[in-house]
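Appendix B, example 12.
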Amino acid sequence: MGVSDEVRGQLAVKFGVLFPHLDERQRRLLMGAEARILGHSGIRAVARAAQVSETTVRKGVDELEAGEEPLGRVRRPGERDLDMPTDMQTGIARNAALVVVDVQKGFDEEAFWGPRNNLAADENIAVLIAAWQETDRPVVFVRHDSLKLESPLRPGYEGNDFKEYVQARRGLGSGPELLVTKTVNSAFYGTPDLDAWFKEAGITQFVVAGIQTNMCAETTARMGGNLGYQVLFPLDATHTFDLTGPFGWRQSADELATASATSLHGGGFAKVVTTADLLTAVQE
């Protein structure tokens, strides 16, 4: 069975957001990673979504499989270079934390939330959790305990529980692990105090993955940047939902994700990266 038009469309949006910030080799590696995730017909689907040749995508797959040198700096359009955290040049810090935000069953209730984007988000979140645990790095699991009685995330309702693949990974790593519960967007306004925990452990760099891109994930990343942390934001390990705003304005989930990535990266709150970037760097 081939890759659906919907998936190709999602890839095209993702590439449109991330490619301007990547050099040529980083683009190949990203395409190669996506092709490997898709499996059969992946190279063709990625080539069509990115509007490149299948040979270019296949080269990216080959480079990943060969385990070549890690990625270098990320670049902005029109700039020669963009300062990146030193750890991203030589590998993720040994004590860099992965903050997994609100990956809860209630977000699977489409009737409540509406259409979502990035169907690959759950798989990417899962592989990041596994990579962090396998390298004994700290993992923070964040759960949203909604105060709204109608919310699928309210305590006492099944939707408040972590998704199965997240719950199954809890306690598996040898590195530090923390559960933070919250009732607002930022994980830094939860219990226990995340900032205090980071400082006590000497953690200065963390990765944000989870749900929703433009809500709790973005808010946690923004606040982390304001507090002086090096924040990495793998856009493809997050997802969100269509949303209606003032004046009848409505934006699709992909449009909201694009806006979040642009604001975080362009505003200097966080470095927007990919799951493939992190999987490469975490092994160094």
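Confidence is low (pLDDT under 50) at residues 69-90. DSSP finds twelve helices and nine strands in the chain.
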